[in-house]
Every structure is written in structure tokens, then in C-alpha cells.
Amino acid sequence: MSRTHDTPTPRALRCPDCGVTVDDRWRCECGSPLRFADPPVPNGEPPTPGGLDTRPGQWAFEMFCAVGDDPADRVTLGEGMTPLVDADAAETSRGHTPEDPWNAAFKLEYVLPTGSFKDRGATTTLTRAVELGVDRVVEDSSGNAGAAIATYAARAGIDAEVYVPAGVKESKLRAIRRAGATPVRIDGSRADVTDACVATLGSTDADEPDPAWYASHAWNPAFFEGTAAFAYEVAYQRGWDAPDVVVTPLGHGTLFLGAYWGFRRLHQAGWIDTVPRLYGAQAAGIAPVVREKHGAAAADPNGTVNDAADGIQIAEPVQMDEILEAVCETGGDVLAVTEAAGTRELDRLHAAGFYTEPTCAVAPAALRELRERGAIDATDDVVVPLTGSGLKR
Ligand SMILES: [Zn+2]
Questions:
Q1: What is the helix (H) or strand (E) element at residue 171, kind and residue range?
Q2: How far is CA 140 from the centre of its chain?
Q3: Is the pLDDT of residue 14 over 90?
Q4: What is the three-class DSSP state of 335?
Q5: Interval between CA 39 and ligand 1 midpoint (Å)
Q6: 26-62 burial string, b = 16+ CB within 10 Å, else e?
């Protein structure tokens, strides 16, 4: 299982659009998001189930990870190896026929240290920050990513400023503050929050290193190194048998693209035979990927914004092209979920013992709709991540 490259740390980044290679910057001079130039892909057979030491959590899959080559640099709280459970098992095992079965496996991402899947990206992003010798990071977030970055920055002993919308939930603000990070509340749209954060980074044309380092879940390639571990774990937990379908919430595509790149690397390594069809569930009314692919009516099916799904209300996803590529390459799709459908689904989740937050209900709600449309059938093997905890509301 040796690595194919012995690359010096920290690893270089490359622009997928113009091909330039750089040591580190938050985006390419051409404006595109950067990726790791040579992410590792292991040689040889996958470990047998039980042959992999999963005590380090998602770091058990270090053989695929472009950060943390030196374990001493890793900023970890033991995140990962979240449960993969049968969505319907509790009811069916008692001989009941569930009223609205999901017929899927749920991966319980909400049990991660700060209550959301964002910890997967925070551990790798702060590890990259340590590799680079960064002493101050900034991030902008509607809540969960900010709490994750603040928490892992605390773990790393690195200063963090988190730009948040003025109306952010107090519980999420508290998590940022209690970790010793500085929340910066910004009036205006979610895009205004990003603009205020980016303004602290200085010019992208400057040769000098940026005054603050952008620990962005939307831009930073190190973040996606972490969310890709979702795919490694799903494949491992299923004995290296990839599911047919994965349905995730879709805002910036942090998890959606992490899953895509993770499954692709597993396929490239020969550890799985197929890459699952990836379906992304967006918030009705703020569904730019759906609009791009299916038009305005599909993006706004009932003329109201799904305000319950505040975690994915991203009007301009940074990685739009990559998201569309992932949909196209895997044969998946994107759809907009209304607040009514999401709320119904959240009730079902809570009643079944999955105490999750409203944003993550769009994924199982989307699964239901995709089944009704015939895009996913009863024989398809489906995995749905439940991305955020209800305890943080
Ligand atoms: Zn470029």
C-alpha cells in the first residue's frame, strides 16, 4: 500500500484551468480554485475488512490524503469512521412495515466532533495550515464550517476569525466564540460575508504570502482532501463495494465534490469497480446548479425559498464547473427541494431517531422524489449522509 509518489511536504497546488503550479495561494491568478498537483493514490490491493487499523478515524485513509504526510502535523480530534446504518432497520427488525421506508443506508456524519461533516475538512485544512507554518486563518461560513474551523484552529493553537451572516444561529456563534475564535458578523447576503472575508486576504496578484490564510471550505483544496474520506469510509464499510447511488445536500459542494473525488481515487486505485451516481439536493429558490442544468422553473418549483435549509443557500458556488462535471460523469443529477418537503422529511428523521438539523433533511427528501420520478429504483443500493446534528439548533 505504498504511495506512488514521495512528494515533499507541503505539496504543491495546480490550476485545473490554466495548468500553472504554485506552492500555495487561495486561488489561481486566473481566478479558478486550485487543486493538489499530485494527490497520492496507493498501489496494490485494498486492505481486507478488519485489516485496516481504523483507530485514527478518517486518517486511516492517509494513503489517499495529500496533507498530513507527517503524522506530527495532523490536527485531529479522532474524527471519522462515522456509523453507516440501515435507515429502516429499527422498524423492520421488529416486524413492522415502515410507513415511508427510505430503503437506503444513512451515514451518520452528525456524530462528528462539532456535529457536522465539516469536521472532515477542518482536520485536513488545519493540518495543511500547520504544514505551511500559518499562524492566523480566516473563514466565512453560515455556521457549521465556521464552528469546525474554529474548533480545529483551537486544537492547532492557531488564531481564527470566522465571518458569519449577522443572523447566524446563536448556538453556532457560541461554538465559534467558545473555541477562542473571533466571529465577525456581516450584514447583507451570504455573498457579502464572503467578500468581507476575502478582503482580508490582500491582492491575489501580490507575490507576498497572504496576510491571513483562507481556510475556506469552498476554495481550499485541503478541505476536500478531508471530505473525500466520506467516500473511503463508505467503500470500506461496504467491503469495497461502492453503492449505486449517493444523495447529498448541495450548496458549495463541499461534501458532494469530496465524495466525487474520493470515489474517483478509489476507482483509480482499483479498490472499487464503479463510481456511484451522485445526486445533489439544493434548497428550492436558491438552487443555482439546478437552474444551470434544468432551468429557472426547476430551481424554484413553488416560488418560495427553502429557508429551513440555511446551510446550503449558496447562490454562486465556487466550484460550479466541477459540480456539473461530477453530475455528468457519474450519471447523477441535481434537484431543488422545497421547505415543505424538507420539513416533512425532518419530522420523519426525528421520529425514527435521527436527530438532525433541517438542512440535511433535503437529501433523504430528494431521494424520495428521485424514486417517484423513476431516476432511482428499488434495486439501487443507496447511501445518504446525514450531515448535521439537531443539537446545535
Ligand atoms: Zn489558473
A1: helix 170-178
A2: 15
A3: yes
A4: strand
A5: 18
A6: bbbeeebbbbbbebbbbeeebbeeeeeebebbbbbbb
- Judged against a pLDDT cut of 50, whether residue 185 lies above it is answered with yes
Average pLDDT over residues 322-332: 98
Supply the pLDDT for residue 3.
Answer: 46
14 CA → ligand 1 middle, Å: 8
In the CATH scheme, what architecture does the domain 84-115+223-392 have? 3-Layer(aba) Sandwich (3.40)
* Strand ranges across the sheet with 213-214: 182-186, 159-165, 136-140, 213-214
| C-alpha grid cell, residue 89 | 432497520
Q: What are 106's strand-pairing partners? A: 85, 384
Render pLDDT for 85-128 as a digit per residue (tens, 0 to 9).
999 976 666 666 677 899 999 999 999 999 999 999 999 999 99
Q: How many CB atoms neighbour CB 233 within 10 A?
A: 24
DSSP 3-state assignment of 183?
strand
* Burial state string for 348-357 with b = 16 or more CB within 10 A and e = fewer than 16: bbeebebebb
Strand duo 13-14 + 35-36: pairing: antiparallel
- Residue 255: in which H helix or E strand, if any? helix 254-268
Under a CB-based contact definition with an 8 Å cutoff, are residues 222 and 9 in contact?
A: no
Ligand 1 midpoint to CA 143 (Å):
29
Q: In the prediction, which pLDDT does 7 show?
A: 67
User: Is the pTM above the cut of 0.90?
Assistant: yes
Looking at the chain, the whole-number percentage of residues with pLDDT higher than 90 is 85
C-alpha cell at 112: 462528528
Nearest CA among 254, 284, 252 for reference residue 361: 284
State in Å: Cα 49 to ligand 1 middle: 40
Beta strands in 15-97 (DSSP E): 21-22, 35-36, 84-86
CA of 273 relative to ligand 1 center, distance in Å: 32
Amino acid at 312: I
**What are the pLDDT digits (tens) for 196-232?**
999 988 655 555 555 799 999 999 999 999 999 999 9
